[in-house]
Amino acid sequence: MATSLRNQFRVARTSAELTHFRQQAWRLYEPVPSETIEAFGQAWPLRPGLTFTPFANAVRCTAHCAFCSEELQRYDGHQLTAKRLIDDYPAYFARLREVLRPFRGWPLGLSLSGLEATAEPQWLRELLACLTQLEHEGMVFDEKVLYTNGSGFVASPDLGLALQDFGLSRLELSRCHDDEAVNQHIMRFNRNQPMRHNAVYAATVRWLHQHLAVKNSCILTQVGITTLPDVERYLAWAAGLGVRQVVFRELSRLEGSYLPNVFTEWIEQQRVPIEPLLAAAVPTLEAPRAGWQYAGSTFGYYYYNEHYRWQGIEVIFETSSYPALQAATATGVLQKLILHSDGTLSGDWDPDSRVLSRVAAPAPALP
C-alpha cells in the first residue's frame, strides 16, 4: 500500500480483492496517527496533510449548479458561509495571515474552492499574492488545487498566468456534459457567462493547457453522463481539447444527513452510482472492457477512487460519503481547515462547528 499525507493507494491483485475494494470503498481507509499543534491558546490534534481552504466568496457564483453543496444544510448546521460575502479585502487578507501563522512549517494542501474563485479576479490575484508572501515566510503548501467552473478566465485570461506563477499543482475544471445544452441544464451558468457555450469552453481549455495542468471534472447525473458509452463519448470529446485527465464523480452520498430541500431532492433523483460503471469498465481483472485498463484504487477518509487508462487518458471514478466526512470531523481530530468569509477559522464547512478562532469583537466605545 502506498500512503501519501492525504490518502492511500493500492492496486488490487485479484478480482476478488477488487470486488472487496468496491464494496468497502472509503471504509478501508486506515487513519494515520494525529499530530498536535499549539494554536490560538490550546492544543489541537490534526491529521497530517490536512487541507486549507480560504472559502471563495467575494461575489455570488457565476453558476447555480443543481447539485451545489453550498446549498445543503445539515440537521445540526447553523449557517451557510455561501450567504456571507467577503466585503473588506484588507481585513480579510490580514485575517488570512493571522490564522495561518501557527501553521508555518506544517505541510498543508491548498484547496481553492467554495463558490467560484475566478468570478472576482481582483480578489483571486490578491489571494495569490498573499499566499505567496506567506510561503516566503515559511508556509508550506505541498499541493495547490483550484476547483473552478472556469468562467473568470474568459474575461481575465491573465489569471491563468498568475496561477502558473503561483505554482498551482492542477486546475480541476467542472464540465458535466459534452453537449452545451445538457451541461447548461445541470450547471446553470448565468446568462451573461460565455463559458456556458462549448466553443468558449474549448478555446479556454486549450489556452489553459499551455500554462496549467487541467483536469476535467464531470458529475455523473441521470440527465447527463450516465452509462459507460456516455463516459467514452465524453472522454473522446475531452481528448480533442487536449485533456489528459478526467474524473467522473458520483453525487456525494448524503444518507439523510441534510435538511430536505430542492437540492437534496435533485441530488437523490439524479444520482448515478459508480459501481455499475466500474463493473462495466472492468468486470474482472482478467476480462476488462476493450480499451480499459485498471491502474489502482485510492482510499480517503470519506472517498474512494478507481483509476484507469483509456486511450492515453487517465480516468478516475470517485464516490464519497458526507456522513463519513462528518464522522471523521466529529472525532475531534482536525481533518481540514476552512477560513470562512466572516473570518472564522474552523475545521468544518459550518463556520459554527469545530471553531479554532474567531474575529475578535470590537472593543466597546468609550463613554
From TrEMBL:
Lineage: Bacteria, Pseudomonadati, Bacteroidota, Cytophagia, Cytophagales
Gene3D superfamilies on file: Aldolase class I
Cross-referenced InterPro entries: Aldolase_TIM (IPR013785), rSAM_sf (IPR058240)
Annotated protein name in UniProt: Radical SAM protein
Superkingdom of origin organism: Bacteria
